[in-house]
């Protein structure tokens, strides 16, 4: 499945396989779930950003996801999930601060990419073809600017 996620105003969220257009939501054979739940929407946003910024590991993300979904976990595990969620809230709770962190990480990863260093997280800046050439990237318009040797 090629999942799509949308979060609006840390209040409404949808996750599923449908493209978020008239055809995808009405005509195609797809499935989404949508919720009007501020705690879930905000938590989902922070989890996605934490993953892209590589702030917490995969196991911790799953623990927090179970906590957000009110799925039963051992008390000690659920308490750890609540602490992790609080830590993410302190770091990413303000969406403008979180977006700035993502921009900074993308720029740092561009520097890392050019220096042939491993990336941190999953973010790179969006560059036009001209910007890619100006950055000295091995750019081929038909493939994009990130070429794997």
Sequence-ordered SSE layout with sheet pairings:
Blueprint: E1 4-8, E2 12-16, H1 22-27, E3 32-36, H2 38-53, H3 58-68, H4 75-92, H5 95-114, H6 129-134
Antiparallel strand pairs: 1-2, 2-3
Describe the structure.
- This protein has six helices and three strands.
- With 149 residues, it is mainly α.
- The mean pLDDT is 89.
- It has a domain at 4-93.
- It has helices at residues 22-27, 38-53, 58-68, 75-92, 95-114, 129-134; strands at 4-8, 12-16, 32-36.
- A three-stranded antiparallel beta sheet has the order 1-2-3, covered by helices on one side.
Distance between the termini: 28 Å
The major β-sheet equals: 3 strands, antiparallel
The strands making up the biggest β-sheet line up spatially as 1-2-3
Which descriptor suits the 3D outline?
A: globular
List the keywords:
52% helix
Task: Characterize this entry briefly.
The chain is mainly α and about 150 residues long.
């Amino acid at each position: 499945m090629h999942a799509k996620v949308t979060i609006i105003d840390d209040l409404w969220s949808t996750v599923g396989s449908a493209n978020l257009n008239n055809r995808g939501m009405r005509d195609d054979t797809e499935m989404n779930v949508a919720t009007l739940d501020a705690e879930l929407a905000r938590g989902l946003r922070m989890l996605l950003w934490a993953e892209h910024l590589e702030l917490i590991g995969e196991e911790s993300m799953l623990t927090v996801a179970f906590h957000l979904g009110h799925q039963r976990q051992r008390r000690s595990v659920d308490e750890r999930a609540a602490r992790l969620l609080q830590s993410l809230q302190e770091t990413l709770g303000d969406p403008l601060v979180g977006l700035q962190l993502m921009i900074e990480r993308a720029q740092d990863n561009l520097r890392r990419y050019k220096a042939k260093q491993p990336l941190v997280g999953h973010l790179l800046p969006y560059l036009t073809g001209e910007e890619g050439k100006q950055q000295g990237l091995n750019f081929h318009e038909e493939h994009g600017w990130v070429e794997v040797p």
